Amino acid sequence: MDENIHSLKTGGIKPHENLLSFGFPIHSETLKTDLLLLHGALGSTAQLQGLATRLSGHVEVHCIGLSGHGGVPFQERFEIDQFADEVISYMADFPERRFHVFGYSMGGYVALYLERRAPATFQSIVTLATKFDWNPESAQKEAAMLNPDKILEKIPAFAGELKERHGESGWRMLLEKTATMMLSMGHQPPLSPSDFAEIKIPVVLCHGTLDKMVSEEETMAIAKSLPTGNFVSYPDWPHPLEKCDPDKLSGDIIGYLS
Question: Disulfide-capable partner of 191 in 67, 73, 195, 233 (CB 3.0 to 4.6 Å)?
Answer without folding.
Answer: 195
